[in-house]
Every structure is written in structure tokens, then in C-alpha cells.
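Aim 2 progress update. The chain analyzed this quarter is reproduced below.
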Amino acid sequence: MLNVPSQSFPTPSSQQRVTSGGRSKVPLKQGRSLMDWIRVTKSGKDLTGLKGRLSEVTEEELKKHNKKDDCWICIRGFVYNVSPYMEYHPGGEDELMRAAGSDGTDLFDQVHRWVNYESMLKECLVGRMAVKPIVPKDHRIDYCEEKRVLNGMLPEIQVTDKLATENPSSPSYDWFQTDSLVTIVIYTKQKAISLDSVIVDHQDGSFRAETIVKDCSYLIHLGLSHEVQEDFSVRVVENVGKVEIVLKKRENTSWKCLGHPLEKHNSFIPKKDAGLYFRKCKLISKEDITHDTKLFCLMLPPSTHLQVPIGLHVYLKLTITGTEIVKPYTPVSDSLLSKFKEPILPNNKCIYFLIKIYPAGLFTPEFDHLQIGDLVSVSSPEGNFKISKLQELEDLFLLAAGTGFTPMVKILNYALTNIPSLRKVKLMFFNKTEDDIIWRSQLEKLALKDERLEMLTLYLGRLFYPGWIRLSASTKW
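Predicted C-alpha cells:
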């Protein structure tokens, strides 16, 4: 028997109302949208209360500003007067007051680390915290001095991050060369390394290779000593946890050194502390999927290697009326039936997104107005989902509503093709109307092709009105 939700769904005690990590939203007054806030920041008003003067803020001074009409918050060493922003905050005033007069960095990271607060609050900047960092003894080494036993191995003292120096399993790297190639080898000392654990970007004279090792990030970040071509290859030897990145020299000359270190080079830190890194991707196609949902295809730069693991998401960033707006989205496959299609471009060079366009929204209308060839900033993958959780499943139940179906797309394909023990996959898919069902025909074809997949698609002719619930005629359960 199907239980129909009541008018008061979800119930007050439901976890859909009691949100985890403080990610609740509150109704905002009219004229208090994000776009309205952007207009306020452009109005020329003094939002700091200091008439444009920046200050060094002591801990004692910060603690004094802990009221709604006088609220300062520190985020990553910078202090902001968030009182003018109170009425515009989607989480409500009480949420901001949790960090009033204190360092709110950890709270901010728990709730919405992806938000570009520097851009949104730049007119509210009071100044820096008056805390002098402890400067360690200077161990900098000239990377071009040939004082190494190996061709490119860094001395142990060069690992600047505390975690890297204290953890005996911290990764290391070496490099070697031929007349035409340079190979960088990363020794992760872990066996659970795959191609999607490695992210490589070479842009603006900077070579950046990030390797995800369990819940930590190992970073090589160099200004290369010589020019290389745009394309390169990445190879992973899983049984020994070795990563090889092969660069092509522009000129067949011998390199005396690999390059000079840039920010956070040779660091090994928790992934949550690594920060977001963006690269510019080109919009190459967009296709209508439903009346308000489109499939967007973004192409990675030729000098980037990035594969988004199943269950993880990325952040898309656009500059709207002078303010950077960032939103999280889960990449999808180009099709549920993609194995029957010839890809236009190699799959590892394209990222697909199913995005619902909200006419009154701020981000999605701007995204929809992008022209083919326009650039979009895309972050490195984020999230905590582990594909290993699926490996030995016998039955998999998936529950989705609307564009909440997007995280299920890759999981669904992976489960049906890569889990030998799998007996059944059951998908319950809620939508407002039949026309809102994403990839409905593809889902039906997939269910006919693989008898392990059973689907229940429900749609509401009128939201939460019991008499209007319907099941699609082709649905089985």
C-alpha cells in the first residue's frame, strides 16, 4: 500500500525539516534576495561602520562585537561586519549569530565552504586579525642546485606541512627526463589510488598536480623551469600506489631542475583544508531534456586531467553583476544509455550537468544564457561518498525527487555494470508532473534491458494533494 503524504509533509519532527550541519533555510522578507544584497554592496553605502578604514582586530576587540546590530565574524583571518547582511542570509540571523564575535571559520566550512564569501562580503571587510603568524626557521632550498642524490627527489626538510613531516606514510615524488619527455613520479604509499584520485592542471605558467590519498590531499605545485606542450598523460600503477605524469618538452633540451616551488608545494594536508581550485571550462553544447531542465556539456582545458568520482560533486562559478556566485552540481553521464552512443569527444575531456532552470533564480538563468564557447569556472571534486560502499551489495534502493536524480545517474550505471553480487536495483523517483520526469524514456529502456532494475515513478498533479498521485503506466515494482 502506498502511503500518501499529508498536507503537512514533511512533519515538524522529520529529518527533512531538522537539517544536519545547520543547512536550514528561512523565509526571507521581500527585497532580501541574493540579488538585492548584491545591489546593496554596489550602492556605495558604508557597510563596515568604519568609513572605509581597515583595522587590525584583536581577539578582545572581536569579542565585543557580538550583537545583531553590531556583529563581527572572523573567517580565515579576515574580520567582517555581517550586521548589514543579517536579513539577507538564507540560513537566518540565528545561524550567523552562532559565530558572533568569534572565529567562525570551522562553522562556515561545515555549512557552506563553497560559498565565495570574499566576493559577497568584500564591502563588509573590517580588517585582519592582529595575530602574527609563527614563522618557522627558513629551510628554503634552491631547487636548481644539484645537491640531490636522485634527479628530482626533494630533501625531507622541504616538506613544509606539519602533517607531512610527522606522518611516515606521507607521499613523496621524483622526476626524470629523456630528450623529449619529463616524467614526474608520485609515490603515494597506498594501493587504493585510481585515475580519478589525480587532478592535474597546467595553466598560466603553473603546474599543479593534486593526489587524493584517503581523506588527505598531496600537492605538487611548481613553476616549471621550461615550457611543455599542452597535452600530457597520467598513468596509475594501482598495486603499488604510483602515479606517473608524462610531460612533453617544447624543446629537446636537458633540464637542470624541474622548477621553482609555488604556494603549498609538496604539502600533505586534510582534504577539507585544501580549499577550492577552479579551472576554466568551455561550454560546447546544451540540450533540452524536459521543459525546464537542460543537459550542459563542458569541455576541460587540454592541459587538465580531471575525472569526477562517482557520488562526488563540483562547484560552478559565474560572475554575476560583478559578484562571483558559486553553486554545487553533481556531474552526470551524457546518457543513461551512453554505451550505445559514439562520444563526440573523449569522456575524460567532458563534464555533463543536468540543471533545472529557475526563471526567478539568480544563477541558473545566467548559466542558461551562456553561449556555446563561453567559459565557466569548474572546481575540483568535493564530497565524502566512497564507491567501496557499493562493492558487495546485493540489493540497492535509490530514492530521488526532481533534479535530485542527478547523483543517482552514475551510481545506477555503475551498479548495473560493476557489482557482480547485485540482484536488484529499485529506484523510486518523485516528480511534480509526468513532464518533469528526467530521461523517462531512457529509464524505461534501461529497465527493459536489465531485469534487475525496477522503477517506481510518482508524480503529483498538485503538490502534496492525495487525490492527484499517479503511477506511470509502464512502471513496474
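The first strand starts at residue 55 and ends at 57. Residues 1-23, 135-168, 340-345, 462-477 have pLDDT under 50 and may be disordered. These observations will guide the mutagenesis experiments scheduled for the next reporting period.
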